[in-house]
TrEMBL record:
This is GatB/YqeY domain-containing protein. It comes from Lactobacillus xujianguonis. Gene3D superfamilies: 1.10.10.410, Uncharacterised protein YqeY/AIM41 PF09424, N-terminal domain. GO terms for molecular function: carbon-nitrogen ligase activity, with glutamine as amido-N-donor. InterPro entries: Asn/Gln_tRNA_amidoTrase-B-like (IPR003789), GatB_Yqey_C_2 (IPR023168), YqeY/Aim41 (IPR019004), YqeY/Aim41_N (IPR042184). It comes from the Bacteria. SUPFAM superfamilies: GatB/YqeY motif.
Length: 147
């Protein structure tokens, strides 16, 4: 089942269950995917869909931070529920060990010798972990390995 088919099925299910948060979040995802499709001028491939989902996830994470600073617990709770819905469409995240293995593999792949090869390693690594690991976490791990 494609992502768009899954979203339509989940939207119908959320309507039946009268789950407003899930319904609104799924509609936002559908809208973001449709906007991206229109902007690019073609049907989205899985990589492009993942990029849109990552963008939606990041927006909600940033919103949660801002709401916490403003001490708006009602909005924090609602946004965390939205975030959980967005994450349900994303691939399973990599464990620490899996990420470490991918970093080691990327370092060997580009034959990195030191800190100066950081960019090369990240360029090789990011497509392999896209949507499955945090970029900040990955870059910290790469720096650790190159030191």
């Amino acid at each position: 089942m494609s992502l768009s088919e899954q979203i339509m099925a989940d939207m119908k299910q959320a309507m039946k269950e009268k789950n407003k948060i899930k319904l609104n979040t799924v509609r936002m995802i559908k809208s973001a995917l449709m906007n991206e499709k229109i902007q690019l001028g073609h049907d989205l491939n899985p990589d492009e869909e993942l990029t849109v989902l990552n963008r939606e996830k990041k927006q909600r994470e940033e919103s949660i931070e801002e709401y916490e600073k403003a001490k708006r617990e009602d909005l924090v709770d609602e946004t965390k529920k939205e975030l959980a819905v967005v994450e349900s469409y994303m691939p399973k995240p990599l464990s620490k060990e899996e990420l470490d293995a991918k970093v080691t593999e990327a370092i060997k792949e580009v034959d990195a010798k030191g800190k100066s090869d950081f960019g090369k390693v990240m360029k090789a690594l990011m497509p392999k972990i896209k949507g499955r690991a945090d970029g900040k976490e990955a870059s910290a791990l790469v720096r650790e390995h190159l030191n």
